[in-house]
Amino acid sequence: MGRKIHFTKMHGIGNDYIYIDSSLYKIGAPNAFSTQWSDRHKGIGSDGLVLIGKPTIGGADFSMRIFNADGSEAMMCGNASRCIGKYVYEKGLTREKLIRLQTLSGIKMLDLQVDVNDTVTSVTVDMGEPILDCPEQFCPKANLPEGTFVSIGNPHYVIFTDNVDCVGVLGKTLECHTAFPERCNIEFVRLNEDGSLRTRVWERGSGITMACGTGACATAVAAALTHRCGRTSNVVMDGGALHIEWRETDNHVYMTGPATFVFEGEIDIP
Ligand SMILES: N[C@@H](CCC[C@H](N)C(=O)O)C(=O)O
């Protein structure tokens, strides 16, 4: 017999996901549900599905699993991490403002900024250390535009170009390029006159999205490595901006930005 489950739609500067408290429901086939529910015509409409659960390891308060719109599971999601911080605090699942989130890429610390009305206005996420080594099978001689590979829980290839709108033409081809055996998220970036970084992103498994948190971190790291910026920068994506700091003292990347509730609903599952 079918049942109804409660979901919450949230976005982080336009990167929208369906959030489900998986401690309340058993979601047997999250990959298939992500594809079905993400459909913007026949489903709820989103860039993917996020399950918020109890941690399965010590030292964490909550856990996150993130599925792209094509059903593939990712190791990490920057925008969803911030949304989870707002979700667990404002829905009363915790009173803590420092939250340890278990992800497939390790435990991430969320630092919530809360106003006098007890509303979470922004969240800073310690995204950990960037990994700059290319994947083992990466073939530098492959026919790729020049770019910088940065992994920050998931893989990104950052291309500096004046024409960031080529995301629609090149994104899919580069995501699935033979240089990236596990596919890749692709960022097209232009340095603005004010020093900010205008970025358009093609996400592995979801296509063009309005923003990508890990993509913003990868962009900032690539810009610092190539001396286009210092160690702090504002990354401006289609849906808004994130502040990124690649801290010298611990080599960690810190991402700060908002998180927003959109609506709540119920959906039938078999
Ligand atoms: N939107 C995310 C990243 C989601 C996963 C990515 N598409 C992948 O497959 O690696 C973010 O905000 O970081």
TrEMBL record:
The active site is at C77, C212. InterPro entries: DAP_epimerase_AS (IPR018510), DAP_epimerase_DapF (IPR001653). The record marks H156, E203 as: Could be important to modulate the pK values of the two catalytic cysteine residues. Substrate binds at N15, N68, G78, N79, N154, N185, E203, R204, G213, T214. It is found in: Cytoplasm. Keywords: Amino-acid biosynthesis, Cytoplasm, Isomerase, Lysine biosynthesis. Pathway: Amino-acid biosynthesis; L-lysine biosynthesis via DAP pathway; DL-2,6-diaminopimelate from LL-2,6-diaminopimelate: step 1/1. Its main location: cytoplasm. GO terms for biological process: lysine biosynthetic process via diaminopimelate. GO terms for cellular component: cytosol. GO terms for molecular function: diaminopimelate epimerase activity. Its EC number is 5.1.1.7. It comes from the Bacteria. SUPFAM superfamilies: Diaminopimelate epimerase-like. It catalyses: (2S,6S)-2,6-diaminopimelate = meso-2,6-diaminopimelate. Homodimer. HAMAP family: DAP_epimerase. Belongs to the diaminopimelate epimerase family. Catalyzes the stereoinversion of LL-2,6-diaminopimelate (L,L-DAP) to meso-diaminopimelate (meso-DAP), a precursor of L-lysine and an essential component of the bacterial peptidoglycan. NCBIfam families: DapF. This is Diaminopimelate epimerase.
